[in-house]
Design a protein that fits this description.
By secondary structure, this protein is of the alpha+beta class. It has one domain (about 10-85): Phosphatidylinositol 3-kinase Catalytic Subunit, Chain A, domain 1 (Ubiquitin-like (UB roll)). Helix content is about 15%, strand content about 30%. The chain has one helix and five strands. The chain has one helix at about 35-45; strands at about 10-20, 20-30, 55, 65, 80-85. Strands 2-1-5-3-4 form a five-stranded mixed beta sheet, with helices on one face.
Length: about 90
């Protein structure tokens, strides 16, 4: 039995930077990234806008689709993501 075993609980502990504030978020790797955005917004007190009004990017600057799961996005445990308001969002 060699190699790295997956975490048995299937959770990802992510670091989400929301407008400069660091939020620690735990999601199931099979949950959509929208869930991570919702949790990060709730934790940071930014609940005025829905998750769809925000952009989630990887450390490399890649825009992540909120419909993808953590597994589909190939996120690693401990990954840092950046959440910012979508350009032109709001009324």
């Amino acid at each position: 039995m060699g190699g790295i075993m997956p975490k048995p609980d299937n959770h990802l502990d992510l670091v989400v930077v929301v407008s400069g504030a660091v939020q620690n978020v735990r999601i199931n790797m099979r949950e959509r990234l929208e869930h991570a955005v919702r949790e990060a917004l709730r934790e940071s007190g930014n609940e005025g806008q829905p998750p769809g009004e925000w952009e989630l990017r990887s450390e490399a600057g890649e825009l992540l689709d909120l419909e993808m799961t953590g597994e589909q996005a190939r996120l690693q445990d401990g990954a840092t993501l950046f959440l910012s308001p979508r350009a032109g969002a709001g009324g």
